């Protein structure tokens, strides 16, 4: 665990115990910190009975509001793109260049393509396209999924598609 992660855990623990009576805070703080740290090491098996994935909800909460602020009329070229790969690459480029967000996961990409640009491209289609993209993207492990960043080859591929 790095220092930033530990610092976050300590801040979370302090927030959790802040409303407890003063005489209980020290003991509760120790217990909460231990639980937060051990939760990272050992993740118990839980059968997911929900239809919606909790990963989906967490991914949408992070930066999707910023992405949803994109002015779609500023990017009419998106309408000319049809494949999941090309739309995903274009969104990765927009996110990096306009919002300084260098890398998105497949849930974020498909959400913005569907909700903002009205492209019916599923998370699975985005995932398959980006997994097969080779040198066009950098695929970085991130939690239970991957974060994708557009690479120079991806920008050249996109530039050629947008010229046609």
Short synopsis of the structure:
With 164 residues, this protein is mainly α.
List the helices and strands and how they pair.
Elements: H1 3-17, H2 22-41, H3 54-62, H4 64-68, H5 84-99, H6 106-115, H7 123-131, E1 137-142, E2 145-150, H8 152-163
Antiparallel strand pairs: 1-2
Walk me through this protein's architecture.
- By secondary structure, this protein is mainly α.
- It has 2 domains: 3-41; 54-163, Winged helix-like DNA-binding domain superfamily/Winged helix DNA-binding domain (Arc Repressor Mutant, subunit A).
- Helices cover 59% and strands 7% of the residues.
- It has helices at 3-17, 22-41, 54-62, 64-68, 84-99, 106-115, 123-131, 152-163, and strands at 137-142, 145-150.
- The protein has a two-stranded antiparallel ribbon.
- The longest helix is centred in the first third of the chain and has 20 residues, at 22-41.
- It is elongated, with a radius of gyration of 20 Å.
Give the number of domains: 2
* N-to-C span: 48 Å
* Beta strands, count: 2
Strand count, sense and barrel status of the largest sheet are: 2 strands, antiparallel
| Structural shape | elongated
Q: What is the CATH C-level name of the largest domain? A: Mainly Alpha
CATH fold node name of the largest domain? Arc Repressor Mutant, subunit A
Work out the helix count.
Answer: 8
Rg, Cα atoms, Å: 20 Å
